[in-house]
Structures are given as structure tokens and as C-alpha cells.
Design a protein that fits this description.
Two copies of one chain form a homodimer. Helix content of chain A is 56%, strand content 11%. Chain A has five helices and two strands, in the order H-H-H-H-E-E-H. The structure holds a DNA duplex (30 and 30 nucleotides).
Chain lengths: 108, 108
DNA sequence: TTTATTCATCGTATATTTGCGATATAAATT
DNA sequence: AATTTATATCGCAAATATACGATGAATAAA
């Protein structure tokens, strides 16, 4: 009955899965791309770019923040977001390492 | 009201997000690792390794198959699964390219 | 001080995912 | 032919995710 079985997997695996989950919605990838392109990182700019309501964008930003992929700072009445490159690199290299560890022989 | 807005994003973005979604559950990453390690690729072996019921594993296998990351063949009363390395490479390189395209300057 | 702007959060509706028992199907074994 | 084995699928329950209007809180502008 939809009990959460995540805890029965290794921490490593759960973390990789969480990283992937953060990237599992086109809006969130689009947000990361926007944050990387622009210097400004203002929430309103992201809302303008995406086909989503402000509340929805705010929610996606929160998820990216919870996943540790972005950081946020309040700047007056605006909110400045940016990618946490350190965390980002950590995750992508883990993911790449895992992919490389998968040996490469076709079996069927 | 949870309308699906995926179609309002570029095909590229949607595909990347779907790839990430396939990897967004520890069980599915574990399945990929198992498929990569073992030659045999029999469903039953995967069930033995994972802390999940057979029906659940079968469902995760189906999702990986739908995502195009694995292939499956019936071998008598058994089912042989394996990673579709071509598709896998295609996705991982797209993902890596996207990450590289994100320029790397901290803004806040 | 009043008003407008920017954003986060709450509440809610709906959709999707996760998990599994039960069952169906098809092949192998007896 | 009957039984066992291996797997897929159905149907259900619970949990999560998606989306947004409404509202609140805090700052900036008038």
C-alpha cells in the first residue's frame, strides 16, 4: 500500500535517485538553464520564461532548493536564486561515475 | 488543477526530464546496476536482489522499458532483460551536454 | 500612509506513482 | 493431464506530485 521503501536501499542510491527526481520535470530543468544563463537569477524572470503560474514556479524552486541544487537569497522584495555549483558538480560526477561503472556488454 | 503542462516545454527538455524520471527511484537505478553486473538479466534474479515484491519489480521493469532504457525478451517461461546501451548513451550524453552548457559563475 | 510589487505559502483539486495481493498466462516438469 | 514455475497484468489503497487561485508578508513607490 505505497509504503515508502526508499530506506531499504543504500544511501548512495537514494541520493542519486533524489537528484534524478529533482531533474524529472521539464520546468525544473528549464529553471536550472535559466539560472545558468542569466546573471540576475530573479524569481520573476523565471516566471516570465515558463508557461506556469507564479505559485507553481515558486513550488518548483522550493523543490530544487530542498534537493540542494540551488540557493536562494532575499534581496529587498525580490528573491535571488542561483545554482549551487558545488552540490551540482557533486551529483553529476556521482551520476557519471555510476554510469561508467555499468559495464557495457549487450546480453539480449 | 494538475493539468499536464509538459507539452508547453521543448521536446528536448521533456525527453531529458523523462530520462531523469526513469532514474528517479532507487529501485530502478538498482535494477540498471544489476542488469549491468550480471550477464543473465533474468527477472527473477532482480526480484531476489531488491526488497520489493515481484509485481512491483515487474512494474519498475516496465517503466524502464517504456523509457527506452532497457530491452526485454521472453526466453521460455523466463524473461531476459538488458540495458539498451545505445539509448542509454544517447541520454547520458545529452544530459552531460546540457550540464556542460550551463555556464559556471556564482551569482549569490 | 496608502498603494503597488514581489514572492512564499496555504488550501484544494486532480493526476500520477508506488506497492502489493490476486489472478491470468504460458512454458516446463511430473 | 495435472502441477509447478516464472512472469505480466489487474485492481486497489495510499502517498506524492502538479497546478493554481487566494492570501499573507514584506518591501518599495506614490
Amino acid at each position: 500500500m505505497a509504503i515508502n521503501k526508499s530506506l531499504e536501499f543504500s544511501k548512495e542510491l537514494v541520493e542519486l535517485a533524489e537528484f534524478a527526481k529533482a531533474l524529472s520535470h521539464p520546468a525544473r530543468i528549464a529553471i536550472l538553464q535559466t539560472l545558468a544563463e542569466k546573471q540576475m537569477c530573479i524569481c520573476g524572470e523565471i516566471v516570465e520564461v515558463l508557461p506556469l503560474a507564479q505559485a507553481t514556479v515558486s513550488q518548483h524552486l522550493k523543490e530544487l532548493k530542498n534537493a540542494g541544487l540551488i540557493k536562494g537569497e532575499v534581496e529587498g522584495k525580490k528573491s535571488c536564486y542561483c545554482i549551487d555549483w558545488e552540490a551540482f558538480e557533486r551529483f553529476t560526477s556521482k551520476m557519471n561515475t555510476m554510469f561508467k561503472d555499468l559495464s557495457n556488454q549487450q546480453c539480449c
